[in-house]
User: What shape does this take?
Amino acid sequence: MVEGQEGVTWAQWVALAEACEEHGVDTLFRSDHYLSNSAPREREALDAWTTLAGLAARTTRLRLGTLVSPVTFRHPSLLAKAAATVDHISGGRVELGLGAGWMEEEHGAYGFRFPELSERLEHLAEQLEIVHRQWTEDQFDFDGRHYRLEGCAALPKPVQRPRPPLIVGGSAGRGTVEPAARFADEYNTLLADRDECARRRRRLDAACERHGREPRTLRMSLMTGFLVAENERAVRERARLVGERFGGRDADEVVARNRARGTAGTPEELVEGLRALEEVGVERVMLQHLLHDDLETVELVGREVVPRLAA
Assistant: This one.
């Protein structure tokens, strides 16, 4: 998972995608932001969905998606059409993550409305339903509080059947777990340790039960920072580079924060931490790769971590 708003150039996106395909990392997600939150007047941010369309044409096996697209940026019909287009370009390799949005400064800079959280969550629920129906129904009407569609057929449908995976992002609050239980395939939470992941999994299960859904049909994933290297000295060096790039944070702090989540150390230690997360219901982990020009880490994950998890 790459923070695309932190100065990732097109050439670097291509290099990352090619490294993932070459080394057996099967999915590349990116954030969907227009403004860096670490250096907003310095770091560039390419548009998420046009970037994914370009990468879809440059790759053959890599699955691509957003973590997550804010509902404040796009009308749901535009978002559903963009994702369906990438699904066609890629031959059926796209995943769509949706969230309520959070960076107020970004909205002001680009002229997007930033309503109160309660209203953004209403948008999220309606957008999920609209995207799902555009991808799966021949034609439908929708009359909600925020969106109205009449006789929408939304052709062509995506390549994937019954539709591309829908992911809802959040911290397992009611405003995100309820619509996820109705329409999503996956719930992605972020920056949580093992105990907190277990609590959030229980909230997801309860929401599914309220909607008459088998809880295990809603996959839970975690987006988290990580540090991995062949030895402790190299782990600390990567921590130093991450700290320098993002506000001068102390390397010890960076290591400690990731170790607390079980996502720092040698490949063997990282696998052990990921297995511990799996035990409390985390079925997929998106590793937040903050040094986007570091292809050696991509190779290491593909060579040493992926095979151990698959064994």
